[in-house]
């Protein structure tokens, strides 16, 4: 009896597992079919939230930065924005992965007083929802919208895709300003080996070093190259449509679309021997839901909570937890 029971149990487990497997595999097969690397016409939409133009030259750097709402956003954008303030002749194209222009990003840009363009360029639900977070081609809709805006509005300058969480040495901007075709340079703190870089011999790029090659002709990170705008347009007038929604291949497909040869690449950072940009990442933690309890009424905590709610660090919610408070300077028992 017990043997039969065990047999039936094993059989039903097997049936359950196979149904589950079939469901999963057909789902991923369907995904691969319906999610094209390049979006169908009309899928993308972007809005110009605001723009402020400075004096532009043939050496203006258009820094295209994708950003999205999250707990760390205000801190990352403050750090990057203040770095960019120190580089001259630069236009910041800050493109939000969001349906609406957020007041947080708008107020930051207004305060910085840099030449800027603020875009809302949401990643289509097709790319967000049909893939898990690891597979979400992060920032692609914003880079495409940002480059489209630059190509529509300017003929000369240098384009650089700068993620909002990386760390940039000012010397990188003064060097990339001279880009005549495509310049490349090492990126630090990336992948297993901690660096990704072109390999240079006798002043020429002859290869690449990266933790992952993946059959890419240009195994480089988004932060590892800059492009001359006139060269970009000459090589591919539709370059704004060339970045694929395909994790891992955004850079390679985009650079291949420029029909680039290794001999055309201009190595920077002292012939790719120095790190002037780092792929830093902030530790991601969950957002807290907080309220101010009766002991802290009419105190600074009320306004502080409003402010951190606005900047997305935490949420103000009556359903949340009380903000911990302590009124005894000598002995705080906050638990
Ligand atoms: C790595 C690469 O360094 C990026 O160049 C590449 O775009 C990205 O992977 C990718 O997988 O597509 P990583 O640090 O893993 O970067 O990614 P994030 O920094 O989280 O995102 C890249 C950019 O996209 C950031 O500027 C971020 O603000 C933005 N982003 C991220 C969005 O706009 N929407 C999102 O949902 C997530
Ligand atoms: Mn990043």
Summarize the structure.
With 335 residues, the protein is an alpha/beta fold.
What does this structure look like?
The structure is a single chain. With 335 residues, this protein is of the alpha/beta class. Helix content is 33%, strand content 20%. The chain is built from 10 helices and 16 strands. The longest helix has 33 residues, at 2-34. It is globular. Uridine-5'-diphosphate-glucuronic acid is lined by residues 66-68, 97, 136-139, 142, 163-165, 221-222, 247, 250, 279, 281.
User: Multimeric state of these chains?
Assistant: single chain
Q: From the helix content, strand content and strand pairing, which structural class follows? A: alpha/beta
What's the gyration radius in Å? 24 Å
| Neighbour order of strands in the largest sheet | 1-4-3-2-5-11-7-12
Q: List ligands, each type once.
A: uridine-5'-diphosphate-glucuronic acid, manganese (II) ion
| Mean model confidence by pLDDT | 91
> What is the first-to-last residue Cα distance?
56 Å
User: β content, as a range?
Assistant: 15-25%
Question: What is the strand tally?
Answer: 16
Keywords:
16 strands; binds manganese (II) ion; eight-stranded mixed β-sheet; alpha/beta; single chain; 335 residues; three-stranded antiparallel β-sheet; binds uridine-5'-diphosphate-glucuronic acid
């Amino acid at each position: 009896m017990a043997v039969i029971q065990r047999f039936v149990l094993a059989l039903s487990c097997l049936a359950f597992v196979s149904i589950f497997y079939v469901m999963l595999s057909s789902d991923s097969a369907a995904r691969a079919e319906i999610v094209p690397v390049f979006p169908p016409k009309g899928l993308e939409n972007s809005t110009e939230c605001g723009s402020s133009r400075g004096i532009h030259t043939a050496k203006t750097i258009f820094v295209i930065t994708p950003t999205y709402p999250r707990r760390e956003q205000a801190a990352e954008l403050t750090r990057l924005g203040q770095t960019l303030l120190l580089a001259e002749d630069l236009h910041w194209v800050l493109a939000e992965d969001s349906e609406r222009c957020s007041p947080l990003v708008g107020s930051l840009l207004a305060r910085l007083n840099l030449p800027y363009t603020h875009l809302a360029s949401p990643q289509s639900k097709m790319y967000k929802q049909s893939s898990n977070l690891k597979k979400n081609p992060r920032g692609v809709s914003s880079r495409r919208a940002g480059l489209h805006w630059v190509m529509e509005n300017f003929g000369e300058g240098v384009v650089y895709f700068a993620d909002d969480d990386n760390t940039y040495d000012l010397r990188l901007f003064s060097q990339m300003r001279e880009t005549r075709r495509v310049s490349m340079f090492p990126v630090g703190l990336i992948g297993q080996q901690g660096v990704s870089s072109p390999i240079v011999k006798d002043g020429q790029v002859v290869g690449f070093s990266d933790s992952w090659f993946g059959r890419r002709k240009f195994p480089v990170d988004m932060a590892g190259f800059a492009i001359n705008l006139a060269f970009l347009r000459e090589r591919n007038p539709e370059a704004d449509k060339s970045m694929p929604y395909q994790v891992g291949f955004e850079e390679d497909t985009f650079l291949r679309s420029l029909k680039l040869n290794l001999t055309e690449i201009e190595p920077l950072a002292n012939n790719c021997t120095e790190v002037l940009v780092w792929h830093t990442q902030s530790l991601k933690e969950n957002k807290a839901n907080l309220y101010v309890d009766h002991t802290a009424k009419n105190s600074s905590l009320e306004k502080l909570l409003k402010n951190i709610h606005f900047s997305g660090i935490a949420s103000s919610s009556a359903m949340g937890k009380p903000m911990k408070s302590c009124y005894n300077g000598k002995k705080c028992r906050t638990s």
